[in-house]
Amino acid sequence: MREASRFREVSVSLILWCAMIAITLVYLGGIVIFAIICAVALPALWAYTVVLRAIDGARRVPRVG
């Protein structure tokens, strides 16, 4: 009887550890995905706005001649 309750304690703690590890991995995965989005999307967005401003500036410059 004593061994059965010990087995139950071990299995519950094992399930809790697995749940904590899974939550941690999901959390870290979210941070990694967010970092990749920041590292790729933000410079691309900045370059896109710079290119659009350059095109817009080129259109507005009066042609001399």
Key phrases:
65 residues, 1 helix, rod-shaped
Q: Helix fraction? A: over 70%
Largest sheet: number of strands, sense, barrel closure: none
Number of β-strand runs: 0
Low-confidence stretches: none
Order of helices and strands: H
Distance between the termini: 100 Å
Helix-strand makeup class: mainly alpha
Strand content: under 5%
Rg over CA atoms, rounded to whole Å, is: 28 Å
Quickly count the helices.
1
Task: Describe the global form.
Answer: rod-shaped
Q: What's the average pLDDT?
A: 81
Task: Describe the protein in words.
The chain crosses the membrane at residues 12-28, 34-55. Keywords: Membrane, Transmembrane, Transmembrane helix. The protein has 65 residues and is mainly α. Helix content is 91%, strand content 0%. It has one helix and no strands. The protein has one helix at residues 2-60. The longest helix is centred in the middle third of the chain and has 59 residues, at 2-60. It is rod-shaped, with a radius of gyration of 28 Å. The termini are far apart. The mean pLDDT is 81.
Could you give the topology of this structure?
Layout: H1 2-60
Characterize this entry briefly.
This protein has 1 helix and no strands.
